[in-house]
Amino acid sequence: MQFTPLTPLALAAALLFSGIEVWAQAPDGAVALEPSRRLQPAPQGEAARRLPIILRAQSLRARPDLDAVAEGAVEFRRGGTVISADRLGYNQVEDLASAIGHVRIERDGAIYSGPELQLRVQRFEGVFLAPEFEFPQFGAGGRADRVDFIDSRRANAVNAIYTSCPRDGSGDPDWVLETSRVQLDFDANEGIAEGAVLRFLGVPILAWPRLSFPLTEARKSGWLPPRIDLDSRSGLELSVPYYWNIAPNRDATLTPRAITKRGLGLDTEFRYLEPGDSGTLQLGLLLNDRVAGRSRQSVQWSHAGTAGAGLRYSTEVVRVSDDGWWKDFPDAGRSLTPRLLSGRAALERPLAWSALGGGEGLAYLRTQTWQVLQGSDQLVSSPYQRVPQLGLRLGSTPLAGLELSLQTELNRFDLPHAEPDATRPTGWRWHAVGALALPWREDGAWLVPRLTLNAAAYRTDAPLGSGSRNARRLVPTFSIDGGIELERETQAFGRAMRQTLEPRVLYVNTPYREQAGLPNFDAAGKDFNFASIYSDNNFSGIDRVSDAHQITAGVTTRLVDAASGAEALRLGLVQRYLLRDQRVTPNADGSADGPPLEQRFSDVLLLGSGHVLPQLALDAAVQYSPDISRAVRSIVGARWTPGPYRTLSTSYRFARGLSEQLELGWQWPLNGRVPSGPDTPAALAAASGIGAAQAARGDGSCAGTWYTVGRVNYSLKDRRVNDSILGLEYDAGCWIGRIVAERLSTGTSEATTRLRAEIEFVGLSRIGSNPLKVLKDNIPGYRLLRDDRRAPTSSDE
Predict the structure, then answer these.
(1) Model pTM?
(2) What is the C-alpha separation between 537 and 72, in angstroms, rounded?
(3) Per-residue pLDDT at 355 exceeds 90
């Protein structure tokens, strides 16, 4: 290329007064432009208007302060705007650029290309005829008959289509969104599409006369995609959520529902975030349930806030209108135990002091109530309600090596008003648990002697077995907990390892105190496992303290990768030895006041876990009884993950005389191309410069990839399937189809079957009932076929 035939004086005047910088290709060593994606983010606003214009071409003709005409591989730059074309003319007086032939604009991550462009550069005002557009961030794009740039923040498009499917001319896109007119306003964060029609495989499936949607991740009021559910108890359900962006710190979602078997309903969620308060209120209303013959409601409220003097307050309440709610609406239980709904409120104040070495604590006032959803097949016993629960917890900073702690509470225990039970006492309890420890800790060793005092006093509403309404007890406990940690360097599994050997011994001495005649409001036997065997009390709660004169001894060894620090293997063994009979014990069902324990040696606990192979994870825990020379309980699990989107897990759970279950979970491709490395289809597309849909397909063809997903829990004892999830996913690249069937047991002879189906249009939205949460929560190792980034909707939160 040659410089255009301007005299040096004319060229200097053009550069100085017109603001146009002209570069042509020169011999090696000359200045060259870099692609815009390597440049720093362009200035905005007034700073952008002061930037010079950079123009590169094979030939250039210019008149200072008037105009310039460039031909041949033209590249025009100003700020963050890059225009390339076969021919470009620039009128400096009108700030008008006219480009013809293979015109391409790159701006703010979007790419436009077409035959002809008229653009006032500073105002970014003009017309682009028959452009195609691309949004590399989303792997999507489309075309339009015409795009009018009103300014840098507003634009209109006529007869536009949008899709994330391949647009290389190899065939019609699988899905396309067609609009007669689109208005974009980035200042208002609003896009308006008129005459919008979504076509899938050539068939129109949704149409909107006028559709509003956000242009950024900021929230915006509007309708969300509809959701469709199908289950065996309610039939077909259609819900269409409306998102209301009330204020920057408040929003609401209103979801009208139509259920074929039951009728019409409305779900409402209101969220708020104030300077000192935040919370969520959810209300559910079914106007007239035709199956139940009545209206039905639900409410869930969670709130947290702060006040002066360090006060914190919170509440969590879940209530429903009837006992059958958890069976009819299993998704709406929102509780770990759907038949036991909690109501909790708390007022707390942290404490701190500096006297006598200092310390920290917490004073609190709480209440805890319950709603129990009973069933005809099995009754549920309600926990005690605590109204009120007044407590104080204190812990001191070590002083002269001593550590002191104190916990004390005053509780009122009641039963729900609808569940009086003459066999379960109600009343008041005060308790205090104080501990004094003198720990010694050095690198690789520790020894912690501890003295604990557990006191409680009761006043019941009805006389106890002794005839009195008052009772008290005081139980001391002395314990010594010690252990060492040994390490050595070794070689294992073909790599350098660090092996540890960690023996631990716990001695506990608690004298016997008669407690069978005392109320039991919250005590229950602890599960026998690696954590509980190293505790000084076999009961959780306060009302029972097991007598003990025992030694617990165990050892754990680990193999740790010397380079990464990842644990490759862990093995553990622990057993307890009674120095005398234990008289305060839990029953086999976990309740209090069991028979005396005379067995000197407890069951042996064995633990093993490992990641010896990168693709294989193993876990096992076994409770072995020396008396019967057999395992009493065992849990064995394995998960094999040979590559992305390939996982297979299985677990076996056994409790002698109670249950025996086998569980299998998986995600596995059935056919098609699957990434063999850690890269997702979107990452592969970014690296190779092709569309996400084509990257997923591999060759740009219409063939996608089928995946099977599922989890099955089978009871070997009862010879029946307890719960199961079976599904198929189809990844076509630019869209993903999912269909999942879920069976939930709601009784010994009852179950609810739900069918969830969804189509995810990549780069647009999802339509159907989203089964992703079910798959993520229930299938170990499940991996999303796409990043968990919500597609743009009318209320992207």
Answers:
(1) 0.77
(2) 86
(3) no
